[in-house]
Amino acid sequence: MSGTPHRIEPAPALPAPAPTWWRRPGLDVVDGRLSVNGADLEALLAEHGAPLFVYDLARPVENMRSLQAALQRAGLPYVTRFALKSCPDPRILAVLRAMGEPGTPDGVGIDACSPGEVLHALSHGWAPDAISHTGTNVSDRDFDVLLAHPIRINLDGVSQLERLGRRAPGRTVGIRVNPGAGAGYNEGLAYAGERPTKFGVTPDRLDDAIAAARRHGLNVDTMHFHAGSGWLGDQLHEFEAALVNATRLLDRLLEAGFPIREVNVGGGLGRVARDAEPPVDIDAYAGVIARHLKPYGVTASFEPGDFVMKDVALLLGEVVSVERRGDTTFVGLDIGWNVNCEAFIYGYAQEVVPVRDTMRPRTQLVTVAGHINEAGDLFAQDYPFPDVAEGEPVAILNAGGYQQAMAMTHCLRPTGTAVYLERQPERPERRPGRPAAR
User: Distance (Å, rounded) from C-alpha 97 to C-alpha 80?
Assistant: First the structure.
């Protein structure tokens, strides 16, 4: 799923100003130093060591509420479910679970993609009917676990419909379709397009899926699709193209007599990682979905992961080497892709900032490298960066989603630890009224 970054920017004239896209309540510069909720990050790093994730516990609530408020302003009946794979951390789950009862405008359910995630959600306070499972290449052993609980299950292919149907004829299910159009931070993160991907029932197989559902008496009440991951504000039209294609498949399911009550549009909303990247206009996003789905009288469901979690945490480490090799200056850190695979696997741009004198001008182009013994363990190349000294603490931003969840002990490097900082969440503006969601 690696690919070319969303946007390749020309090298700026040096010195360049420090980036500002990331500054917000709770994450800013205080007395010249990077701060999360007023904490002394250098002292935290000295206490806990690297790698160190620092979480702002108010931020996931703010991010989820911003989406819910936009959906409410659009007048769209909705359900929000958190993509558990982005962060299964119990501390994060606790603040999301406390937002309200799932199925209410303030509440948050769970989007799971494996039996383990279903069991994790159940053990952390979610009732089965608040959990939706959508998985790919689901095995019969997986179905043994999933069918033991009255959760929502979306089936990803004709094979899944046949195998679940033989085991649980008459069950209520959803079908994930592949709309043949997608959007992603880069080409590898678009989950649908002209070339078939591993996700969903393609239009040419939808009749086979309908036949399988009928053969086993399955009650199909949900249509699911997922355009891709990390798409930004200038790609809303690509998401809309996927949505339009999905409604054509919805028409075919309705014509087949299935009582579709929910259309799940997946997740995929991205977070910017550079000053030049355009954020998603969340009201425009909600408006697009309302325009296309309101005529059907369905509930729209959402499965945000990175949108909720990406800017919730940063990852602290230390500069351990500044080394000139040929015409390239390498800034080496005491953290690696085993705890931050965003660039290595997904091609996401990374922003690295010094903890001290955070806003100093960027005076050189460098390659920021990790300590895993592989050439691809790089966070950024030809990257504008200030002069730094060995021993300086630095932070990699946008570290809240997927990173700690995917950490591994490759090269027997540590996966690090985390600290959690409190702050009172800000509440977005909402219109009166509570759109009904089933």
Answer: 12
Check if the beta carbon of residue 403 is closer than 8 Å to that of residue 315: yes
Q: Which CATH number fits domain 59-306: 3.30.70.20, 3.20.20.10, 3.40.980.10, 3.10.330.10?
A: 3.20.20.10
Residue 438's CB is within 10 A of a number of other CB atoms, namely 11
DSSP state, residue 384? E
Q: Above 50 in pLDDT, residue 436?
A: no
31: left (phi over 0), alpha (psi -120 to 50) or beta: left
Which of 94, 104, 93 lies closest to 129 in space, CA to CA?
104
Backbone angles phi, psi at 234, to 5 degrees: -85, 10
CB–CB of 113/199 below 8 Å?
no
Name the nearest CA neighbour of 250 among 193, 189, 300.
300
pLDDT reported for residue 184: 85
Mean pLDDT value of segment 97-121: 97
Locate the domains of the chain by residue range. 27-56+310-421, 59-306
**Burial of 413: CB neighbours in 10 Å, binned 0-12, 13-18, 19+:** buried
- Give the CA count within 13 Å in the CB-facing half-sphere of 91: 18
Does domain 27-56+310-421 fall under CATH 2.40.37.10? My reply is yes
234-253 burial, b if ≥16 CB within 10 A, otherwise e?
ebbebbbbbbebbbebbebb
Q: Nearest-5° angle of CA 246, CA 132, CA 272? A: 65
Residues 6+ apart with CB under 8 A from 127: 102
pLDDT band at 41 (very low <50, low <70, confident <90, very high): very high
Q: Tell me whether strands 262-264 and 219-224 are parallel, antiparallel or unpaired.
A: parallel
pLDDT score of 11 = 63
For the beta carbon of residue 46, count every other beta carbon within 10 angstroms: 12
Res. 6: pLDDT tops 60: no
Q: Are 133 and 152 in contact (CB under 8 A)?
A: yes
Count CB atoms within 10 A of the CB of residue 211: 14
Cα separation of 288 and 237, whole Å?
9
Sort strands 27-30 and 364-369 into parallel, antiparallel or unpaired: unpaired
The mean per-residue pLDDT over the stretch 39-67 comes to 97
- Residue-wise pLDDT for 141-185, tens only, equals 999 999 999 999 999 999 999 999 999 999 999 999 999 988 888
Element (H, E) at 394: strand 393-396
